[in-house]
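Reading a protein record of the kind used here takes only a little practice. The record below shows the convention in full:
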Amino acid sequence: MEHKRKIGGERLRNRDDVLNEDRISELPDDLLLRILSSLPTETVIATSVLSKRWRSLWKMVPKLKFNSEDHKSDHQRFSEIVYRSSLSHKAPVLESLHLVVRDKTEALDVGIWIGIAFAHHLRELVVDLHNQEEAYAIFPSVLFSCDDNTLDSLELKTSILLEFPSRVCLKSLRKLHLDYVVFNDQESVCNLFSACPSLEDLFVERKSNIDVEIFTIAVPSVQRLTIVDEFPGNGDEGYVINAPSLKYLNIKGLEWVESCLIENAPELVEAKIIDVTYVNNENILVSLAGVKRLSLHSLPFEVKYPTGIVFYQLVFLELLTPKERNILSLMLDSCPKLQILKLINPTDCFATRRACPVGWEWSQPKCVPECLLYHLETFVWTKYAWQRDDEKEVAAYILKNARRLKKGTISTLAIESNKLERLEKRYEMLNVLANEVRGSVSCHVLFEADSYSYKSGYYVPHKFSFTLGTTEKE
């Protein structure tokens, strides 16, 4: 009995030793630094009290993150922490510095903190200066005047005024993200973009006409460009894009913007145009004639459709627009090599009922488009309005004339399962469409008609699909 007690006690001590064992400290420095890099810098500094080994380890962490919101009642202490931490840093290369500053008095010190970081060969800089007073802080342009800066990625957010009276140097910069910053003038825009000969990824989110009326993006090296401008303009402003290396373009907004001129983008492969509704010039579509993939999510679609335009390279087309508009008919006629067609109905019921402009109603092409006869292989219609005759007319036309179609998927919005009459009517309407004449004998068309119910306060979806006149539940 005594022997068993000794064995039991020894096992208990061994278990406690395992639980109390500091296994994290046994990890190699490289792994520990990687772990610490994901934490706020103040938390990293706090590890210095753990043991002798941890005392200076935090100084080698290659990423620094500071947020003044953690010091709402003591702004002076926040400034001291950032300043001392930056000076104490020992890593040969500072991979990133993230600064979130919410007090306009602290914003005055941002230039000093960034200057110290540049001395450590900073690669990524993120600065967010949003404050409740909405007062703009002038970003110290002198920081970008040095030829030896190693900045690879720059992200500037809100309440920042950019003033570049002369050219600066950002020769290593590959990624630039400008989020609601304000330029002092057009010259500042030009001087910044011309200072980035290696820039590949540019993201610009702004408020129309808040700083410069014609926002010119002339960057020969940029390959990926995103413009977001969802604030209504007054009709005088616009965008000019000159990007000979551009491959991917994403534009969202531009409400009541006078123009969006794409002067030079011969390498453009993929474009996504969202909510660009009232641009008055045709250039925005003409400049996209060479793309291979195009998504048009504009409602209502008021952009002028150019006469005689042909999308010779287009193989993928996605449209978000009420199907009674003739944009679909025009696009089918203009895309001779189209292989994939995706139609998406808007979830906004009001938008689908909005009166369409004269001349944009769906009209069947006089001749079957070349893409339907020889190339279209995939047809997808999401949120298909099964109760509308004009929707059925469009779907039936595509299914009847797409001779090379291999796969089709038509899905509707879910209906509550207790509305039996509506569910039966939907099935009846979809089954009629399923039995329409097909242009392709090998085509498999899947109809997805989901429903849902509420049980104990939870949303319970029910998958339901069928092909032709048969049904198959999942």
In short: The longest strand covers residues 224-229. Residues 349-360, 469-474 have pLDDT under 50 and may be disordered.
